[in-house]
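Sequence in, structure out. Go.
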Amino acid sequence: MKTQEELAAEQAAYWNGPGGQAWLAAFERIQRSIAGFSDDVLTAAAAKPGETVLDVGCGTGETSEALARAVQGAGRVLGVDISEVLVSAARARNLANASFEVGDAASYAFESAAFDLLFSRFGVMFFAEPVQAFRNLRRALRPTGRLVFLCWRTPQENPWGLVPVRAAQPFLPPMERPGPEDPGQYSFGDRTRVERILTEAGFAGVAFRPLDRMVPLGPDVPTVLDNIGKFGPLARQFVDAEPAQIEKAKRAIAEALRPHVTTEGVRLAGACWLVTAQPG
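Output:
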């Protein structure tokens, strides 16, 4: 079993290396696939003119830019991400009322009681030390502030991710399965675990709203197959697979995706939690 320090080091190495670079290369496609969910969480956050916002796991700064528009010139946004690669892209936006820093949410020296809103879109699931991270974030939140974040529910509720992986697995090297407390894309799927983490970290009034949307994977199956090899869990497995294994896996994925081809492209169901809370 890996220690929290080892898990944190793995996350930092991935997002400052191949993960960050692959995310940048796939940026436009990823934004299209999660656009509806992004709108949902930004609407729920309801950032107001003059507020100070902390965008956790800000990535390339797309949500930070939307939040900066909402708080207007009198407000400010701080975007924080563990990836220097992604933060550099965010800084290139040159936003007048937003700044970006590289840092780990568990240890970054945030100004105490400085923020009206703690916000995250798909960033919190990768915390190696989630209770410590949320405690640190809680200290940064004003007593009257609020927490709003978006995370994926369980793999079984997210066929957009599960269907390709299940189809490919018989033909690829075994995938290392994360433990129940390990960081990962679906690590916040269990609402009981999430509520425990937030309560231990000092939050109260934790509420969950399920969000269900169709996720567009691409205009057609060949495009989806090409993209699968560039970013995500299967892309990481392809690194260690033989060309013949990859070809068999892609044929199986294509067969599994065909029932999901629509006039709007390849679309499968996605499921998230919209989580809100206040300081305890």
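Check: The mean pLDDT is 93. Residues 42 and 58 are 13 Å apart (CA to CA).
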